[in-house]
Amino acid sequence: MATGGNAIRGTRVGAGPMGEQDHGFHAERVAVSYWDALGNETVRYFAAGIPEEEIPDTIDSPHSGLPAGRDKENPPAVAKTEPYKTHLAYVKERRTEEEAETLLDDALKQLRERRGQD
Q: Where is this region: Disordered (predicted)?
């Protein structure tokens, strides 16, 4: 059986003669609930003396990754994302040869008019 260091089996690392209250575990805290669009609740704890302006209105929910707000009835909306387009979808959107020639002719005509070489 290999052991290392001076740790005694069954003791916490970092535990010493000071109690947990000296480490801040019993400091006064305020629980703030956040809800995401799927109804998941997340509770965050903040120090009791922190000003209300410093408590964030929205966070990212660890349950779903969606934004979560403090208003249970009106949580932030789910972000709308565009679906991934395949190469074939882009090929279908390409213009026809006739449209491309018309656009090129119009562009060249406008360029010549700006230069005064009509």
A: 1-20, 54-82
Separation CA 62–CA 46 (nearest Å):
17
pLDDT digits (tens, 9 = 90+) for 25-65: 667 888 999 999 888 999 999 888 889 899 999 999 888 88
Q: How many residues does the chain have?
A: 118
The single-letter code of the amino acid at 53 is E
HSE (CB half, 13 Å, CA atoms) of 107? 6
- The pLDDT tens digits for 10-25 are 555 555 555 555 555 6
- Kindly report the backbone phi and psi dihedral angles of residue 115, in degrees, each rounded to the nearest multiple of 5, phi listed first: -85, -15
pTM of the entire structure? 0.48
